[in-house]
Automatic annotation (TrEMBL), chain A:
Pathway: Cofactor biosynthesis; pyridoxal 5'-phosphate biosynthesis. This is pyridoxal 5'-phosphate synthase (glutamine hydrolyzing). Belongs to the PdxS/SNZ family. The keyword Methyltransferase does not apply. The keyword Lyase applies. Keywords: Lyase, Pyridoxal phosphate, Schiff base. InterPro entries: Aldolase_TIM, PdxS/SNZ, PdxS/SNZ_N, RibuloseP-bd_barrel. Residues 12-216 form the PdxS/SNZ N-terminal domain. It catalyses: aldehydo-D-ribose 5-phosphate + D-glyceraldehyde 3-phosphate + L-glutamine = pyridoxal 5'-phosphate + L-glutamate + phosphate + 3 H2O + H(+).
Length: 298, 193
């Protein structure tokens, strides 16, 4: 298609798209109309799914990949990248999403897992993957399987940011601890993290993950988004927080601004005004452990 | 005086690192005061629709446009190229850029992410090894106005890098491949002003 030595779907190209999304907000949408609202509000990408996590939580049942017609409709509606979710371990859903030409696949704990042992072998795909993680070992295992982007999991569909906070603190803290270790301690560190030694050594020497890390799961307000950015996130996913709120378009715009100007309390005060009702929310501590989505994935 | 990188969204940190690796003094630009300190400006990769909105919301859009018009050396990569084009094809409704390059640029010209690629390019003004380039949901330059110099094209002739007076725009990302020579070329434009 272009030059003689052209190569597609390389790790650089896969990770590169996530680099371009940094400092941005990725929004969950369930219809082309919502996708358009998200794009107009300044979303850097949209996540196409059948039901937002708050509804998945409320309605229960098995949650699966979205209808291809819906995904097609969303791809047609917007010019920004479109992501879509496949169940953990469901490599055929991923094959279908790749055939639909989505820009990124989220192998997501928000859907019902299809395999309680293995995740998808993401190296086999041309399309890049983002995966959730609650700690450094989990993030590195996903990267080993081929993930080109990580999002800390938080607890989706709650509007409670405390789990997102816990996960980004855990991952950042473990990276700092690794960076402080001497070289001969890294072998045991790799064993403890249950991650490959080479990757552990890379993180220890660079002091960061080799891929972009966004935060997800419970971000509902501009202040939540700015909190995650101040904690060192590269960007934020907002799921139910926007379209389960009183004024989605305004809230979406406000969260985009807060993500850029996360360090400026005057801007944050201004964009936090007059947004109407936030999503109702559930305290994570009120959710019995078996119903916590973040515990899916291993 | 430092070179600024518009730091509203996208891979601005990689540009800061690239500039610093070239020995330049680099700062993030999010405010008018920061813009006014700069004697060169980079518009990074990212989402052009988002960069436009944030620049407009924070009263940077007109000042940047005017600075470019009055000769501020400016360099855009990917979304940055789109932001510097006088004409944007396949933009969203109401999408406009800062302008500065009399070219027509098509967004997502290669298709979706599956069509993103790496390749080697020859680039006017850069000798030795070819420039290794990553095209990520990249735009291309479809029409080139008078006075605009083509710096690089793909083998099939599609234009991917251009310059006119104080403004340079390229469709790929030297900031993510560790290629410093395009930034060095830009710094020469900054110094010669």
């Amino acid at each position: 298609m272009s030059n003689s030595q052209t190569s597609k779907s390389t790790p650089l190209v896969k990770r590169g798209l996530a680099e371009m999304m940094k400092g941005g907000v990725i929004m969950d949408v369930v219809t082309p109309e919502q996708a358009k609202i998200a794009e107009d509000a300044g979303a850097v990408a949209v996540m196409a799914l059948e039901r937002v996590p708050a509804d998945i939580r409320a309605q229960g049942g098995v949650s699966r990949m979205s209808d291809p017609d819906m995904i097609d409709g969303i791809i047609k509606a917007v010019s920004i990248p479109v992501m879509a979710k496949a169940r953990i371990g469901h490599f055929v859903e991923a094959q279908i999403l790749q055939a639909l030409k989505v820009d990124y696949i989220d192998e997501s704990e928000v859907l019902s897992p299809a395999d309680y042992v293995n995740h998808i072998d993401k190296w086999k795909f041309d399309v890049p993957f983002v995966c959730g993680a609650t700690n450094l070992g989990e993030a590195l295992r996903r990267i080993t399987e081929g993930a080109a982007m990580i999002r800390s999991k938080g607890e989706a569909g709650t509007g409670d940011v405390s789990e997102a906070m816990k996960h980004i603190r855990t991952i950042s803290g473990e990276i700092r601890a690794l960076a402080a270790k001497s070289e001969d301690e890294l072998y045991v560190a790799a064993k403890e993290l249950q991650a490959p030694y080479e990757l552990v050594r890379e993180v220890a020497s660079t002091g960061k993950l080799p891929v972009v890390m966004f935060v997800a799961g419970g971000v509902a307000t501009p202040a939540d988004a700015a909190l995650m950015m101040q904690m060192g996130a590269d960007g934020v996913f907002v799921g139910s927080g926007i379209f389960k709120s009183g004024n989605p378009a305004e809230r979406a715009k406000a969260i985009v601004k807060a993500t850029t100007f996360y360090n400026d309390p005057d801007v944050l005060a201004q964009v936090s005004r007059g947004l109407g009702e936030a999503m109702v929310g559930i305290n994570v501590t009120d959710i019995p452990a078996p119903h916590r989505l973040a515990e899916r994935g291993w | 005086m430092p070179v600024g990188v518009l730091a509203l969204q996208g891979d601005f940190r990689e540009h800061i690192i690239a500039l610093e690796s070239c020995g330049a003094d680099a700062i993030e630009v999010k405010t008018l005061a920061e813009l006014n300190r700069c004697h060169g400006l980079i518009i990074p990769g990212g989402e052009s629709t988002v960069i436009q909105k944030l620049a407009t919301n924070y009263d940077l859009f007109e000042p940047i446009k005017n600075k470019i018009k009055s000769g501020l050396p400016t360099f855009g990569t990917c979304a940055g190229l789109i932001m510097l084009a006088e004409k944007i094809v396949d933009g969203i409704e109401g999408q406009i850029g800062f302008g500065g390059l009399d070219v027509s640029v098509r967004r997502n010209a290669f298709g979706n992410q599956l069509d993103s690629f790496e390749t080697d390019l020859s680039f006017k003004g850069i000798t030795g090894e070819p420039v290794h380039a990553a095209f990520i949901r990249a735009p291309i330059v479809e029409e080139v106005g008078p006075g605009v110099e083509v710096l690089s094209s793909l083998d099939d002739g599609r234009v991917v890098a251009v310059r006119a007076q104080n403004v340079m725009g390229i469709a790929f990302h030297p900031e993510v491949t560790g290629e410093l020579r395009v930034h060095q070329l830009f710094l020469k434009m900054v110094d010669s002003r």
